[in-house]
Specification:
By secondary structure, this protein is α+β, with helices and mostly antiparallel strands. The chain has a single domain, classed as Alpha/Beta hydrolase fold, catalytic domain (Rossmann fold, 3-Layer(aba) Sandwich). The protein has 3 helices and 5 strands; from the N terminus they run E-E-E-E-H-E-H-H. Helix 1 (78-81) links the parallel strand 4 and strand 5.
């Protein structure tokens, strides 16, 4: 499976969710999109021009042992989970590198509402496999994570 990662700087978004406003953050935040092309899913069908949105908080350390992957649940998105991320909390981005991958059909990633002939069933495994593909140009701080997910799937 091939794809490409692209990222954009996080923008301040008005929210009432209790999330730390962008101008108040003391840590890096990166928003990105994993472009997957046409993705076959396990229950049959293809997601045309599949893409998964993601967000990361914090900085990957030199030993690459400070990663937390906190995937969204069905219908939730990374913006709705932002209130969980902040200094001195469990998801402290000054200590951890937190990656929040969105799921298909959550309104940010490719969804049935905006994709003709979207498969009738897209599973959690499809979401995990999509994140573990072999995309070109993965940012260095996410490349190791992708390889670990691939290894876990191969067990």
């Amino acid at each position: 499976m091939c794809g490409s990662w692209r990222s954009r700087a996080a923008e301040a978004r008005p929210n009432g969710s209790g999330a730390v406003a962008a101008e108040e953050r003391d840590w890096p935040v990166t928003d990105g999109v994993l472009e997957l092309g046409n993705l076959e899913v396990e229950r049959g069908g293809v997601i045309t021009n599949a893409r998964l949105v993601w967000q990361s908080h914090g900085t990957l350390n030199d030993t690459r042992d400070n990663v937390i992957v906190y995937p969204c649940s069905y219908t939730a998105n990374h913006e709705e989970l932002a209130w969980l991320i902040g200094q001195d909390g469990v998801l402290d981005p000054t200590r951890w590198f937190i990656v929040v991958p969105d799921m298909f059909s959550n309104g940010l990633s490719t969804s049935a509402a905006d994709t003709p002939d979207y498969p009738a069933v897209v599973t959690m495994a499809d979401n995990v496999r999509a994140r573990a593909g072999s995309p070109e140009g993965i940012p260095a701080d996410l490349e190791f994570l992708t390889s670990h997910v691939r290894a876990w799937l191969d067990q």
